[in-house]
Design goal:
By secondary structure, the chain is an all-alpha fold. The protein is built from four helices and no strands. The N and C termini lie far apart (33 Å).
Length: 82
Amino acid sequence: MTCKEFVDFIRAYRDGELAGELRRVFEDHINKCAPCKVYLREYGEIVALAKGAYADPDDEVPAEVPPEIIKAVLATLRRQKN
């Protein structure tokens, strides 16, 4: 598995949807590739922060949230509505 393939499967892995041989190959890559291991950990932290950031959808966005993150979230929400 390449690092690009790793990124393609990271969400399925975290959601428990990666099974069998593909899961084994994914985990083998994590054990051999330090940058991807860090990426997986940081991805998990970002997901956790994002889930907790909008407990109430009417809350104001904290000032320290980078504008790029806000744009990305809004673009994702627009895509989900379509």
